[in-house]
Fold:
Amino acid sequence: MTIPRLNRTFTKRRVVKAKKKKEPEEMQSAYDINKKIVEPEDILDLSEDELSEIKTRILKSINPNAPQNLVRYSYEARTYKFEATVEQTAFHFVEDGFLIRKDSEEAKIMKEIQEKAQEQRRLENAQKKEQGNATPSTGAAQHTEDDFSDDELSDEEGANDASLTTTGTDNDSNTLKNQFNFSSRATQTLNNTMVEESVATEPPPTMEFCATATQWEIYDAYVEMLAQQKLNVQKKQSKSKGLSEEDSAPLTQSLISQSIQNDTTGTSDLQVIHSTDMARSVKLMERMINQNQNEELLEDFKFWEDESDTFKPGGMGSLLPLWKFQNEKTRRKHVTGLSWNPTHHDLFAASFGSYNFMKQGTGAVACYSLKNPSYPEYFISTEVGVTAVDFHPKHPSLLSVGLYDGTVSIYDIRVKPIKPLVSSSITNGQHSDVAWQVLWDNDPNAPPKTLSFNSISSDGRVTNWNYVKNELQHTDMIHLKLEDESIQNTQDPLTGLAGGISFSANQKKKNTFVVGTEEGLIHLCSKAYNSQYLNTYRGHHMSVYSVEWNKFNDDLFLSASADWTVKLWQDKKSDPLMTFDLGSSVGEAAWAPYSASVFAAVTDDGRVHVYDLSKNKHDSLCDQVVVKKAKLTHIKFNPSEPIILVGDDKGLLQTLKLSPNLRKETDNLDFIAKDDAIQS
Structure:
């Protein structure tokens, strides 16, 4: 009975042990079911051979921070030569040590001192041993003391000298031991093997030439060269006049003798400093320096494209500020007019005066270039404020200018000093009030030598001026009459005239122009009918500061007024087609030269508004603040580049680049047809 009992007990224990062993396996299997292996998407799928492949790296003794283009001056060759070998060693840590070399002089001196000290200790030990032999009774004790002292001394010597040990005998050898277990290790890497390559070519043909030249011979050669250049110019002139070579021969002798005489007198040096060539060279240097300083602006001007335009809803755009132009002489003056040069599109003229009639002072006209924003290329000062300026469309050096006292003038910026070629006066029909705008005639059928421009003034006259025989001849195209009949019937000839402010001529319809007045009316006029208006447009309630015809459609024109609105008109309809409320007084509105539906306007709150009527007829695509605590007065589009020029009442001029959404070219006028259909 005892054996089965033992068997049951043993079996029960084995079952318990088996259960204990199985529990972790069951838990492990449950854990494995929930476990997930996460692998990245870009993991490389490599084979076993690729995984077992050993990648080697080659260490090169090349310093990456070492210069690779060293140039040193060779006094032997008297020129700069390229340095082929460059030091590749780089010191990462340097510390002064206390170890010396065995074969140095200092090591020899220290070794001699140590040998002398060791010899002296040996002699002292020998004397002590002799004394111990003389006293045998105390010899044993003395011997042990000597041995102990010797061992102690040897330990002290080893600690102090760090290299010497003694054995107690005279014939023991001295050995130097390194206490710090110092070992010197060095590695040397192999440089890349140099491969020499050579190419055999046929030498170019050479010839020997030798000569001696003195300073006066070189000088005479240059004088003859300059004389020859003058002779070539003289020959061209003589050919145009019909002279023969025999007749032009005396001119050659006179030119050479005159050049030599001028050079011998010593006046040529002063002439070079104040010559036009020197002025041109200095101007080019100044432009190069300014372009280097404004390199980022130049890169933005050429390459900036706002990529965010593709994601903006409704084709919205933005303006990128570029150059700013300001001069101390024009600070705190109002920008009263802007005009781009028709030939040189980087050059523009700006007139400065004052719109505050209680604070009038001097005026100026400044011609700036985008290549040199630091200082104007040409500067004209006037005694009274300048209110208008315009470049001639065919002669880019001629400027027409209107002044606050009613005077109109013509300037040629090529002539130094810059003075008016001709000006109006009381005797030849000068305006009796402010000349608000001047505009050159751009008639392609006009004679080539005819200079004619128009002006408008607050005295109610729209006048045409012709520059004939060094004087101005005027013709009044129309007298702006008031619409009030009670005032028109008065006998005073000046009482019934309306004040004109803005003027724009139609380039496709000859003799047709529109005029904006101080009363808010716009009149369509013709040079052929100067006694009455062709049409009158009523929509503005305050002064009309600017009017401008569309460059693609000769039936549409734009007007901007102080009543916070910009209106789009059609010449055959008295009511405006569209009205845009900008929330502030509008200084000027201008059509874009590249699109029939894009125009921009500036307001007194310092904002620039850009509209594209083909995309949105109600809201602007860009409404951006350009200046703070200042009023924008005028705006002009560049004829060829996607930039606009704005001026304010502080004398500051700014250029802004249009983003791609604001400069899409189109001549489609379907939006006008749709609007006409809706109105009908």
